[in-house]
Amino acid sequence: SSGINAEYGQLHSVCGVRVFGPRGIVTEPGTEIWYYKRKIMDPAFQKKYLKCLIGDMSVIAKKMCKLLRQAKRDTIDIYDIMNKVALEVVCNCGFSLNMDAV
Description:
mainly alpha; globular
């Protein structure tokens, strides 16, 4: 949806370092530049911080389960659903943005 794309455009950098998109941490080859960008993200992956996010992740997981139960088809596009779940988790937990993607 266009709302998701608009929000994605605002999330391409963290602390002035490009994270998403071309040459971001996700697409940067394993180099010293990648290592530098990854070190900036280290605080977000500490166990203590991740424990604080379990509640938000649980709410999103329950929304996904409800969506899957409501599916009236024999097959579903799990790739699309999981992309939306991942986007919602990153936006909600990482940036406090409520995307309502799921």
